[in-house]
Structure formats: C-alpha cells, structure tokens
Amino acid sequence: MNKMGMKVGYLLFCFFLISSVTFGQLPEAPPSPGPDARYKADILVMVAHPDDESEIASFLAREAFDGHKRIAVTYGTCGNSGGNTVGYEQAASLCAVREIEVRRALESLGIMNVWFLGGEDTASQSPLISLETWNHGAALARAVRYVRLTQPEVIITWLPDYADGENHGDHQAASVIANEAFDLAGNPLVFPEQIAAPENYKLIGNLTEGLRPWQAKKIYFFTNARHQDWIEGQGPVYPSTTVSPSKHVPYYELGATELSYHQTQEDAGPEGREAVYKAAVNYFKHPVQFILGKSLVGGSRTGDIFDGITPGPIPYPGMPNYQPPAHEGLSIELGGPYLFYSRFWKAHGLDHIASLYPPEAGVGAGMEVSVPIIIRNDTDSAQKISLTAELPSGWKEESGSAVYPVEAHGAYPITAIFTAPDGNRPEWQEIHFNAAAGGKTVSALTLRVSNVPSGPVATLRK
Ligand SMILES: [Zn+2]
C-alpha cells in the first residue's frame, strides 16, 4: 500500500471509530452486582450471648415459620465463660462448643445467618466495662458491617438501660452497639472502607468491602427487668400460646426446642436436650413483649413490628444533634452507667427511655451494692461539699459519706458502697443522697433499691 493508500485507510479507521461512538456501538457492561440477597434480613437480632435469642425464640418461630421473614442474629461474645453443664470444656473451647450450639439452636428455626462481634464474656454489671473488654471500636465496626450486609428492616436488641434484674454488662453493651450501629450504618462517612467499591471484585486483593450504607427502619428492645409495671403499652406483645399454622404446635414449644440446644448453659443432665426442653416449656408460655425504641417510618407503638414498613431503602436521616446539659453551682448526680445512659438516650433519639422508670438497682440479700456518684462544682472557686446518705432500715453504709474538696469547674467521681439487709425485700426502698456546702443543702438525688435472696451476679442470665 502506498502512502496515499495508508492515509485513506487511517481516515476510514477513524471514521468507523467515531461512528461507533456516535451511533451507540459501545459494548454493554454486565449488570452491577447488587447486595448478596442470601443475607438480606427482615429482622436482625443483636444480642450478647448464645442463648440470649432464646428470650424471644417463640416470637422468632412465629416470624420465621408463619411470617416467612428472613432473620439474622449477631452475638457480642461466643459465650466463653460460665459453667459447662455437659462437659469439661472451658474458655476458648467452651466458645467453640457454644458457637455450634447456637447455630444448631437457630437452625431449628430455619435461621442460618449468624455472626459474632469478637467480644469476651465479661461478668460485669456495667456496659462500660463490657464495652472496654470487647474493644468497643472493633466490635462496633463488625456490627455496622453486619447491618450493611443484612440490610435489616428491623433491629431487635436488649433494652439499653440499667435495671434490677437486667444489669448484665454484656447485655447492655450489645444494646449500646446495636443502637450505635442503627444510627451509623447509613452514614457513608462511618467505616468508609466498608462501603468503598472494590477495584475489581472478581480478583483477590481487593481491600475495600463493597457494601452499601443502610438505614434500618425501626429498633425494638426486650428486657429481663424484674419489675415491669411500666412496660404495658410500650410496644407490641406476641402471645406464645398461639398454635403455629405451619408447624401445628404452639410457639412456646418451638421456643423451648430452640433453647434446648444450649445444653452447656442449662441443667441438661443425662437426658440432655429433652431435660432442657421440659424445664423450659412453661417459661416459654409467657408472651414476648417488646419496647419500641424508635421508628423512622411511623406505625403505632404497639402495632406489629412491621407496621409502617414498606420494601426498599429509606434516606439516611442524619445524626441527632447532642448537646451536653449545662451545669451550674454545686450538684450531685448518679455516675457510671446511669450518667452514661442519660447522655446516650439523648444522643440517639431515645429520650423516652428516661421516663420508663426511675434509676434503680437490685442487690442480693446481705450483699453490697455500689452507687457511682459525681460531685460537681461549677463555680469559680474551690468548694468543700458534704455528701450524706439516708438509708432504708436494715441497710448499712460501708463508704460514701464524707466532705469532698472539689476544684473550681471540677468534678469528683466517687463510689458509695452499701450492704443490703438479710432477707427478701422485693418492694422498692429508697436511698437518699444529700449534698451540702456552707451548712445548706445544694443538691439531692434518690436511687430506688430492692434486695432479693440471690446475689446480683447469680441473677445474671448468661
Ligand atoms: Zn446473656
């Protein structure tokens, strides 16, 4: 081909290239791979320990078998401590055993999508201690990942409050993380590596995760609180004595069957699962009561948990705007979990929880209860503040009452310790705290307490 011929050929090539662009001849890309539908959940249960889900197992049976809902569960720990009623395995080995127990338990309800946040069992009564041992940030990152992976319509978790009978730090920590994940998973700036698209998802070595932000629509709570006179009307109630149309047995039987797989945590004896089932079946006849945390899609407080929910994503609403309360003069307030929750509820749009019941504590007969108190001085000069406690009859103060020097604009955290009297006094009693300076009362607060035969640690359900 001569030079003229080459030029003509080049021009023809350019013409075909331009015309293919102009006339829509681009190759068609394959469909964008969406979220993996196998992991989509209608309900994501976020709890602390294997067997926590059993508290609501009869409800889960209803939703799984007859509501045809997709359900996933996350656990803060794998249950690596506590007694083993079946074998000799403990610690990491017990964790390995209980992971399988809970997978089999949930499989009995058809629930297969189960994940763990990597925390350690922590025998505390404070969510703050459990959050520390769980490595809060790492556990939260996992929780946000599982919300984005499962894209739940509804999240169910423990009630985020400290109560007599529901003071297990792990349960509370699981709730704190679930509420944080509810508010954070839709925010593209939170753990952004999780939602960055991989460069080429079909090759290995893609270190961004390819998830999507996801805003769950509702969050509900359940509780083991010993006193529940406040709970009526706070959320939907699901009877467990109803017969399942598909399984032809009452839901409480399905719930007790689910629990029966947790043999290492129950008094299984030689009869194993059958013994666990027999011991549990009456307990499961109680209805399952929820407390509405918040809904971003309306619906009534006591209506079905899917009331107001329609398929598809909803916009991320942004974070509630939290402003810490201003303090003036000299004051005292409950510290520890009480102070944390008073801030947490405001920051997460859960203000109504503060009005469910007043600050309370349960303590075993003859045992000690610790009461964290913050003594504040929001004046411009150092102050001496006298703290005194007025106790119900039979109670004994071990420490707490004293004169505390508090620097200007400072706070002095203390832990007052009291011993409960012997005997069962389940009715409420009150401890009154009084703060005085210059001979005048400047602040006061009240904590209601009850003492019961078993100690607080013994009452913790693992
Ligand atoms: Zn538990």
Can you tell me about this structure?
The protein is of the alpha/beta class and 462 residues long. It has 10 helices and 17 strands. It has helices spanning 3-22, 57-66, 91-107, 127-133, 136-150, 169-184, 192-195, 251-260, 273-280, 336-347, and strands at 43-47, 71-77, 113-119, 154-158, 218-222, 237-238, 288-289, 291-295, 329-334, 360-364, 368-378, 383-390, 396-399, 402-406, 410-419, 425-437, 440-452. Strand 16 (425-437) and strand 17 form a beta hairpin. Helix 4 crosses helix 6. The structure holds zinc ion. Zinc ion (ZN) binds at residues 48-49, 52, 168, 171, 461-462. Zinc ion binds next to loops.
Short description:
With about 450 residues, this protein is α/β, with parallel strands linked by helices.
Rg is: 28 Å
Helical content stands at 25-40%
Described by the principal axes of the CA atoms, the overall outline is globular
Strand content: 15-25%
Total strands: 17
Mean pLDDT: 92
Strand order of the largest sheet: 3-2-1-4-5-8
Write out the distinct hetero groups bound to the structure.
zinc ion
Write the H/E string, N to C: HEHEHEHHEHHEEHHEEEHEEEEEEEE
Number of helices: 10
Instruction: Measure the end-to-end span.
Output: 86 Å
Mind describing the biggest β-sheet?
A: 6 strands, mixed
Low-pLDDT ranges: 455-462
Query: What class, by secondary structure content?
Result: alpha/beta
